[in-house]
Amino acid sequence: MKSNDLTVIAVAPNRWQVSALEDVLAAAQRVGGSAQARFGCLLLGHPEPERERLALEAGACTVWTLDPGEADAEDYEMWAAVALAALESSQLWSTPRRVVLLPPGAAGEELCARIAAGNGSVAAGRCEDIRVLDGQLQFDREGWGGRLSLSLITAANDLCACLRADKPSYPGRRMEARLMPLEHEPAPRPQRQIEYRETSEKLPPIESVKTLVCGGRGVNEAGFALLERLAEALDGSLAGSLPAVDAGMVPAYRQVGVSGKFVRPDVYFAVGVSGTPQHLAGISADTRIVALNSDPEAPIFRVADVGVVNDWETILPALLEALGPG
Ligand SMILES: Cc1cc2nc3c(=O)[nH]c(=O)nc-3n(C[C@H](O)[C@H](O)[C@H](O)COP(=O)(O)OP(=O)(O)OC[C@H]3O[C@@H](n4cnc5c(N)ncnc54)[C@H](O)[C@@H]3O)c2cc1C
Q1: What's the pTM value of the predicted model, to 2 decimals?
Q2: Distance 146 CA to ligand 1 centre (A)
Q3: Do the first three CATH levels of 3-181 and 211-323 match, i.e. the same topology?
Q4: Which end of the chain is more exposed for a tag (fewer CB within 10 A), N or C?
Q5: What is the CB < 6 Å shell around ligand 1?
């Protein structure tokens, strides 16, 4: 691959931590280095000379700046709209293939998905590596909660991704490096009616706890009431498999799995859950699983650290009694 076949652009809002900019510069250096391509940096928000200096010192050939005016750090809709407006500018692209990099982490991934949806590029999400081989963009990702490593090739010319690399190096400003402010009239925002409601839920979100108790199809309403008490007693939270959500035992935002959420608690109690790949994909490979299932052949026992073969009707009341009144 010749250097002029690929453009790498690191995108960072100035309202985000400066470490986000450094992370994305490190990623741009890595992708640019492996593809022998130059990289540029798009800084969004009020001009910050220190950040412009960092990007130039990291070796960006161009640093574009675009100031949309007032904006919250978490206003992803706005940052995505501004990034898309900037990325549409033909001034940024001089090559047939393009990689847009966002800072690694939840905010970067959110922006990555929105930008990819907006400009039709491939949303590679959280990548382990990105390279160009035989003229095609390739990227490595973890799959199934870190249990699989996937190498994917795309025939598309545009990729949008987050990549965690080491700290950036600062070899110094290139001779030809330049700072280029972009002009942009922000597009009118869609008018949305947003209604805020207080929730009566006592339990915290499933992504935030160290102990998660999950019920599956093998548990009925009475069992879920016990699981909720167990979650409270353990200072954790309550989740469900897809059939448990379908049966109305837990709300959809408490579903774990490939079409639910990805969780990484220290301990995961799987009760009446068989352990299908679609469910396990939502649990980090680093999490310790304690499984309670009446079927000794249930696949969950192949991945569980502790397995109890019994009915929840027998075990859960005894466990709650042993834990004592909360
Ligand atoms: C595209 C796609 C996406 C999907 N996404 C998800 C997802 O995000 N999350 C998800 O969970 N699933 C998902 N699924 C569904 C998945 O394939 C399984 O159907 C589901 O995970 C099974 O859930 P379960 O373990 O609760 O139920 P089951 O597989 O029916 O297991 C119930 C278990 O309960 C045990 N049991 C029964 N009675 C008792 C008792 N009294 N005491 C103790 N144990 C008992 C049984 O032995 C059994 O092992 C998806 C499927 C598809 C096709």
Answers
A1: 0.76
A2: 20
A3: yes
A4: C
A5: 216-218, 241-244, 255-260, 272-274, 276, 278-279, 282, 292-295, 298, 311-313
In angstroms, rounded to a whole number, what is the distance separating the alpha carbons of residues 191 and 65? 27
Give me the architecture of the 3-181 domain, per CATH.
Answer: 3-Layer(aba) Sandwich (3.40)
CA distances from 93 to 52, 161, 187 (A): 20, 17, 21
Strand partners, 138: 131, 153
User: What is the distance between the alpha carbons of residues 241 and 272, in angstroms, rounded to a whole number?
Assistant: 9
The minimum-distance atom of ligand 1 relative to the CA of 312 is 42
Domain range list for the chain: 3-181, 211-323
Q: What angle do CA 17, 106, 93 make, to 5 degrees?
A: 75
Q: What is the pLDDT of residues 236-278, one digit of tens each?
A: 999 999 999 999 999 999 999 999 999 999 999 999 999 999 9
Instruction: Tell me how far apart the alpha carbons of residues 208 and 264 are, in angstroms, rounded to a whole number.
Output: 8
**Residue 104 CB neighbour total at 10 angstroms:** 21
* Closest residue by CA, ligand 1 atom 5: 259
